[in-house]
Design brief:
Elements: H1 9-17, H2 27-34, H3 41-51, E1 58-59, H4 61-65, H5 80-90, E2 98-99, H6 100-108
Antiparallel strand pairs: 1-2
Binding site for Ca(2+) 1: 52, 54, 56, 58, 63
Pfam families: EF-hand_7
Binding site for Ca(2+) 2: 91, 93, 95, 102
């Protein structure tokens, strides 16, 4: 996947393994386990650009639902509840989307 060059494969595997069950995804834990929290602002921006699949400048709910698949093709989709909780955690300005600055704030929190 496109994030493999930025993150260690072993970290990606471990982070995905920790959230294989439905309703087990916790964004703070995932960002820490996958190593994204420790990355530079540039690397976080690269991750954002991969996750923002329609290149709109925002991560929308549908893109969040497929968030884990940006790390590994066979990863599960987030449940509706996980997706809504993830969006609520990242959407600081309440517009229903996560912008680059909101994403960076969420990753570093």
């Amino acid at each position: 996947m496109a994030l493999a060059g930025t993150l260690k494969e072993a970290d990606i595997t471990a982070a995905l393994a920790a959230c294989t069950a439905a309703e087990s995804f916790k964004h703070k834990e995932f960002f820490a386990k996958v190593g994204l929290s420790a990355k530079s602002a540039d690397d976080i921006k690269k991750a954002f650009l991969v996750i923002d699949q329609d290149q709109s400048g925002f991560i929308e709910e549908e893109e969040l639902k497929l968030f884990l698949q940006n790390f590994a093709a066979g990863a599960r989709a987030l449940t509706d509840a996980e997706t809504k909780a993830f969006l609520k955690a990242g959407d600081i300005d309440g517009d229903g989307m996560i912008g680059i600055d909101e994403f960076a704030t969420m990753v570093k929190a």
